[in-house]
Specification:
CATH topology of the largest domain: Aspartate Aminotransferase, domain 2
Helix content: 40-55%
Structural class: alpha/beta
Radius of gyration: 21 Å
CATH architecture of the largest domain: 3-Layer(aba) Sandwich
Number of domains: 2
Distance between the termini: 50 Å
Number of strands: 11
Bound molecules: 4'-deoxy-4'-aminopyridoxal-5'-phosphate
Largest sheet: 7 strands, mixed
């Protein structure tokens, strides 16, 4: 029996550069002590006070079907957080709660793309982006963002890609590059989006992880409120990846239809999880800073380690929990480097090629292991790179 093109299109051809990740997992399962600097998962767990709130909510009976759009108090808390951070007037009618940012990305594309419409993504991109656009019926066109430009999109590339496109997916702070888009870049994106009548889907799930510069939400730019759907999540800001709770913030008529979509897909997010998310947001910035701090610390460790050499180049990450290392001087592709590093040193990093074409010759390092192990792994990676460069 034939399956739909949409479901078959969720994954691309081949392993998309994820072979090294699966190999690392298999080695680990076989008992090899692999240091995994691959996926974006904190090495701390959800704060016990959030778990207490979750437990109390469940014991208090919030275990039945929850309100599909999200509970009023959580939608209000998200709206107020967004209004405080961006200055844009926001009410619960602009918010729907989703099971994490990923389902929000899918829903946002479903709300804006008709079958065959072009959905733009910026390359390098987060692994699920092409499949998300295809799964929602769209055709993917990538906007190259080159390392020479700090991985920020440039007007000429975006203008060219925007012809005939319907949506543009933007992610700042960025996974995989660690770039935080500048005000100038965001203003350029807003101008092109308006000139080409694009919907902008703004993935801001790393908005609490800023190391340099500041986060500006595209929705806050002139003329963008009615064409921007912001995707947010508790995963990264509160180390709640497993709780699956996020949101979409957008114009009221779109949010009303997104709620309709939830009724036909997820039927909402469990009430006790929503109560825990509400509790977590209520703790304010102190808890967000506590969750973000280990990455700021490790970023500094990495900058110090990299200072002692000039083979591997790396622009300091401005945000998020990753850094991109330019290993082109070794003569290897990112994929060959990552595979060889795994074999030689049992250190797993992601090849730049897993994120599109613009980060070829790079590897992405997730700053998600304890400081000592992180520092040692980076030092080994640098020695390994030096050895490769010598024997090239
Ligand atoms: N967007 C980006 C850029 C991400 O890196 C991730 C997770 N790694 C997500 C969205 C989805 O996160 P979640 O579904 O856990 O909110």
């Amino acid at each position: 029996m034939e399956q739909s093109k949409r479901i078959l299109g969720l994954t691309g051809d081949g392993d998309d550069g994820w072979g090294v990740f699966y190999r690392a997992r298999a080695l680990k399962d076989a008992g090899v002590p692999v240091i995994e600097l691959t996926i974006g998962e904190h090495d701390i767990r959800t704060h016990p006070s959030i778990l207490d709130a979750m437990h109390s909510a469940a014991l208090a009976g919030h275990t039945g079907y929850a309100s599909v759009p999200g509970t009023a108090k959580l939608r209000d808390a998200v709206a107020s957080r967004i209004e405080t951070r961006t200055g844009v007037s926001t009410t619960r009618n602009n918010i729907t709660i989703t099971p994490g940012g990923q389902s929000a990305l899918y829903a946002a594309h479903t709300a804006t793309l008709n079958p065959g419409d072009i959905g733009l993504i910026c390359d390098p991109y987060y692994a699920t982006y092409p499949g998300t656009v295809r799964g929602a019926g769209g055709r993917v066109v990538a906007v190259p963002c080159h390392p020479e430009n700090g991985f920020q999109p440039q007007r000429a590339d975006l203008e060219q890609a925007a012809i005939g496109a319907k949506t543009l997916l933007v992610n700042t702070p960025n996974n995989p590059t660690g770039a935080v888009y500048s005000a100038k870049t965001l203003e350029m994106i807003a101008e092109v989006a308006q000139a080409h009548d694009l919907w902008v889907i703004s993935d801001e799930v790393y908005d609490t992880q800023i190391w340099d510069g500041s986060h500006l939400s595209l929705r806050a730019l002139t003329g963008m409120q009615d064409r921007t759907l912001v995707v947010g999540s508790m995963s990264k800001s509160h180390a709640m990846t497993g709780s699956r709770v996020g949101w979409i913030c957008g114009p009221e008529p779109v949010v009303a239809n997104l709620i309709n979509l939830s009724t036909h897909t997820t039927y909402g997010v469990p009430g006790y999880i929503q109560d825990a998310a509400h509790f977590a947001l209520d703790q304010g910035q102190a808890l967000e800073d506590e969750v973000a701090h280990p990455f700021a610390r490790r970023r500094q460790i990495a900058l110090d380690v990299l200072k002692g050499q000039n083979l591997i180049k790396s622009a300091p990450p401005q945000g998020a929990m990753y850094m991109m290392l330019d290993i082109r001087a070794t003569g290897l592709s990112g994929t060959d480097f990552a595979n060889a590093l795994l074999d030689a040193e049992q250190i797993a990093v992601m090849p730049g090629e897993s994120f599109g074409t613009s980060a070829a010759g790079h590897v992405r390092v997730a700053m998600t292991v304890a400081d000592d192990a992180f520092e040692l792994a980076l030092k080994k990676l640098i020695s390994f790179a030096a050895h490769q460069a010598q024997s090239a």
